[in-house]
Design brief:
75% of the residues lie in helices and 0% in strands. It has helices spanning 3-9, 18-52, 61-90, 92-106, 116-144, 150-175, 182-186, 191-201, 208-225, 232-237, 241-247, 249-272, 276-286, 291-320, 322-343, 347-363, 367-371, 381-390, 392-396, 398-410, 413-420, 424-430. The chain is globular.
Amino acid sequence: MDTSAAIGSSPWYRSLNREQWRVLIASNLAWLFDGFEIYALFLTVGFALHQLLDAAQYAQIPRYAGYVLATTVFGWATGGVIGGIIADYIGRKRTMMLAILAYSLTTGLSAIAWNWQSFAILRFLVGVGIGSEWATGASIVSELWPDHARGKGGGLLQSGAGIGSFLASGVWLLLGGLGPNAWRWMYLVGVLPALLVLWIWRGMPESARWEAAIERRRAAHAQRRSGAVLDGEGAALTRFTVTDMFLDRSVRRRLVPAFLMMLSVTLGFWGVATFVPTYVGTVAEKAGLSAPYYSAVAGLLGTGVAIFGFVGLGFCADWIGRRPTAMIWYAACLVLTPAVYMWARSMGALLAAVTVFGFFTGGIWAWAPIWLPELFPTRMRGTAVAFCFNAPRWISCIGPLIAGTLIVGLGGYGPAATIVGLFFILGIVVAPFLPETNGKPLPETLSPAQPVLTS
């Protein structure tokens, strides 16, 4: 019987086994708490700074919010890159469990902040704790899901972050009116459920692809110790994964444009989308409405549709391809930024614009867990995916700083957000330089001296 024909004649989800669904759900739950924690910061940073700053400093809140957001992004980048490297050496499952444990221990620390400096430092630690979960989850889902459904799997995986953000908006809607310390409770809510996810991961399988790659790595090291001269993949397997990533010319040709695409979205998102709840709250306050209520409503709308944006991008990527889908989402983010911050005048129009904006600025992240793992061989997949996804944050942490400074300097959110939103152009320009991988097997080796081998 022709297996590919059988797959094509039945619904895509019937080709998946129980193990593949379990890993997706467990990874989705881990990302759910990441999404909750990050969006909780977006929702509460303005209110936290109202308590942590002197009244004379209130006019500078956007600037201080930029500092806090930048520190969080920097911590996320640091933890993420380190976690990706670890995942290539000790396994996807064990790295995910360590990441969840670190997140569980650090997420509540933000609640004890006593000034804006301690708040920023604690947010850095939280960023380090959650950073490595993304690359690890993206790697193990891509390695376990079949070629024809990997885009859908990546979109469903990324939707966990959207669900977490949506839940954070709902929790803030309930807690936001509890007084000046309400923001502190937001950082305590996710601790115990995260420990439950850690327990769930104890029963997850390890990636068979990683297990095969680590056996090849051990064999290569044994050969080198015996005095054998290695070349090709054998030599690559004995190199440190970060060194290997930059020395392998075929990998480097993919690494650079993938890095630039992620730099585009991280600069754009962290400099534009992160200020949406605060901006809506400011507009509401000027109109004599409740700032906490409308910032929470904006968060619910934007994060709610982002869940569909993630899943929609995944289905679209399996339908028309990775490259055109990514370019559509980047172009939409570019156009919709001024629609939110400059063209929407009434509260109703603003909330409508935020809803459409959330579909694309949230959903745009889903190209990464779909496309990035398909670009790099298993021996360095965790390292390369983590580098592309997280290292741009070392640069893009200036996005909130630039945006916060421009908001203060230009006297409003509109011109500042529109300027920072121009970074989305970079993603549109760079995407054509990456290969189309839709429906193709994951690469096991990428070497100019060898054909690409797959399993």
